[in-house]
Amino acid sequence: MSFCANVLTYLNKRSYGINNEYLHIVNAICISDSSDISHKFVSAIIKYYVFEDSGELTNVTQQFCEYCIIGNKTLDRLFSLFGSVFQPIKTILFNDKNELFDVKCNLLTLLNFFVKTGHFNDQMVEDERFIYNIFELLKFDELFVNTSILLETILDKRSSVVDITILPFLFNSLNKSYLHLGVFLSVMNYLIHTNSTDKHIVEKNVQYFVGHRIIQKVISLLSLSTFDLAVIYLLQNGYIDEDSQLISSFNERCPLEIETYPDIDITFKGVQGTYAADIVSNILFVLSSIVDKLDEESQLTVMEKIRIDDVVYGLYESIDVETLPPNYSRSSENAFHSLFSQFLRFVSVLSSNLLVGKKNGSEMVNSMISDIGNDKIDHSFLIPLITSIEIIARGCNVKQREVIGTEKGLIGLLVSMIMDRSIEIKTSHIIYDLLGVLIRRSSTNTLTLISNIQVPLEILFANCSNYCVETSVFFRNLILNIIVDKIELDTEQKIKDKTETSIRNAIPTFFKKTIEFINREGITSYTTCCMNTSILILGIYSTNMKEIYQQWKNKKELKKEVEKVKVLFMKKYYNANRLKKLCDVTATSKQLWKSGLQTPVIED
Q1: Domain residue limits at 258
Q2: Any domain includes 200
Q3: 456: nearest Cα among 419, 404, 413
Q4: Which helix (H) or strand (E) holds 392?
């Protein structure tokens, strides 16, 4: 009697007729082709499912995986056949027996193939019970890598985030092996980052990871060598098996390399360097996604003993911007460009106190400043570097900003750049923003700025009026420093008086062009700074409005345009909390802004 007849006879006796429970088996037998591997695969699966006979499973599942992935087959029939044996496959995968690991690895590879086809989304991608059962397989070291690869594929196709706080075993699995942790990073990406409405689940997942000290563990991966990071890449992408000699040698070296933390010894060059760059990008993405959701106090607590300033300095030196491929962009698919992007993303979400701290200085920032002034650096890297320093400087106190701006020479470097007529206006916008941040409430940095300007201030301020959006933060902070706060410029009273006169002379033109620009272009994230500066000027000149209205011939038009800007400002800062945030960012008082809103417009 044939195998098919045996199975049907057995099922008929067992169930007193073929019932719904076994219809899929009957269907699989019917559609499998006795002339190819599909029949052998169905037979092997059913033998185990019905008779618990695993004799043929290992070899046949391996052959069938290869057939599905690289063989010549008809997908429609393959989909139908897979659907028929899906239930038996789950039975084999999800049993609690410590057996058939080779078979299960092959079945996980098979599931990964079918998930990628998009044909079984309801059964595998959207079914949370199925996904949690897959997570359970992470308990087994032998299945960890294949399970992680499948989970990454599934989660990439899901529209919602999976809540992993109900998986208490997960961290036991992750803590067993740095190799497994490195492989699992690509799964973590989908658990802690989302653009959807699942923010509450992401926050739960992040706190779960933080509570289990996963940040410390992930950061320590940066102490691995280029070679071992490349091994993680090969394993994560299915290019090598876990029984490879590379893995055993990795496990021997790993503890010794981890002990060198926080030293970084990675070379991002060649094939190995490309693979290492991909894994380090993953590490930084995961860290950024977690850290970005922590407030400053939590960051300081979590990072207290991590020595993150040493880590980011060592990593920045290893990236070596001078040797990176030219024509960088954030959307570039080049592995080294992606690494640079993820590094800047990471340092931008870190508290400035972690990077600068009590030392009032940062080796990483110093290196960035050196690179900004290095003519050998491709110009495409300038804006990202300057932007990153600006983000860091915003979180610094005055003393820390003076170290960056004056002691390390950044202000002089930036001034020379804006005086260079070849600099694009987009680049000069970022430069002016950073200068504005550095000088706020700092007499030292303000004096350094003025001392480095090699042209009459009137020329500089005329340029500010011509590019009111690009220079708004810079010009506003000069106004606040010199006119509102009246900061001391040491013994240089003549310099202060001359600067104040030049600023006051420039304000009417700047104000007019700002108001006109806002009324013409509206309020966007790009023009909000202009609106803020114009309201600030109204507040400063509330008792002497004629001085700033001199540029307008038509006072009725003036009133109309200014009132529009006031309305836009009130829409933007519609409650006390929003206004407080503005005051904190600009280091100003609420009264100054309220005064600007209350200032009447003079009519003819």
Answers
A1: 213-391
A2: no
A3: 419
A4: helix 382-394
Q: Which of 351, 366, 391 is the last residue of a domain?
A: 391
Segment 454-501, tens digit of pLDDT: 889 999 999 898 899 999 999 999 999 999 998 887 666 778 888 899
Q: What CA–CA distance (Å, rounded) separates 332 from 323?
A: 16
Phi, psi at 15, each rounded to 5°? -115, 10
Q: Please report which residue ranges of 357-468 form alpha helices under DSSP H.
A: 363-372, 382-394, 398-402, 410-418, 425-439, 443-452, 457-466
Burial status of residue 517 (CB atoms within 10 A of its CB: 0-12, 13-18, 19 or more): middle
Mean pLDDT score of the chain:
87
Per this entry, what is the length of the chain?
604
The percentage of the chain sitting over the pLDDT mark of 70, rounded to a whole number, equals 91
Q: Which of 124, 199, 212, 202 is nearest to 163 (CA)?
A: 202
The band of 18, judged by pLDDT with boundaries at 50, 70 and 90, is: very low
Report the C-alpha gap between 121 and 116 in whole angstroms.
9
587 dihedral zone (left: phi>0; alpha: psi -120 to 50; beta)? left
Please provide residue 256's backbone torsions phi and psi, each rounded to the nearest 5 degrees.
-70, -40
Paired tokens of 597: 């809103």
3-state secondary structure at position 2 = coil
Output the CA torsion 187→114→239→169 (10° steps). 30
Q: 488 is written with which tokens?
A: 């001391």
Residue with tokens 């007193």: 16
Task: Give the DSSP per-residue string, 280-309.
Answer: HHHHHHHHHHHHTTS-HHHHHHHTTTT-HH
Residue type, 179: L
Note the pLDDT of residue 75.
76
pLDDT band of residue 245 (cuts 50, 70, 90) is: confident
Q: Would you say residue 199 lies in a domain?
A: no
In contact, 180 and 174? CB cutoff 8 Å? yes
Count of domains forming the chain? 2
Residues 221 and 366 grouped into a single domain: yes
Closest CA to 238 of 119, 173, 148, 158: 148
Residue ending a domain, among 103, 125, 147, is 125
**Of the ranges 68-77, 191-200, 383-392, 571-580, which one carries the lowest mean pLDDT score?**
68-77
The reported pLDDT for the residue numbered 73 is: 67
Q: What pTM does this model have?
A: 0.88
CA–CA separation, 106 and 323 (whole Å): 42
pLDDT at 17: 41
Q: Answer yes or no: is pLDDT of 19 > 50.
A: no
Task: State the pLDDT at residue 135.
Answer: 96
Q: Could you say which DSSP state residue 373 is in?
A: T
pLDDT in the model for residue 27: 53
| Sign of CA pseudo-dihedral 210, 212, 216, 220 | negative
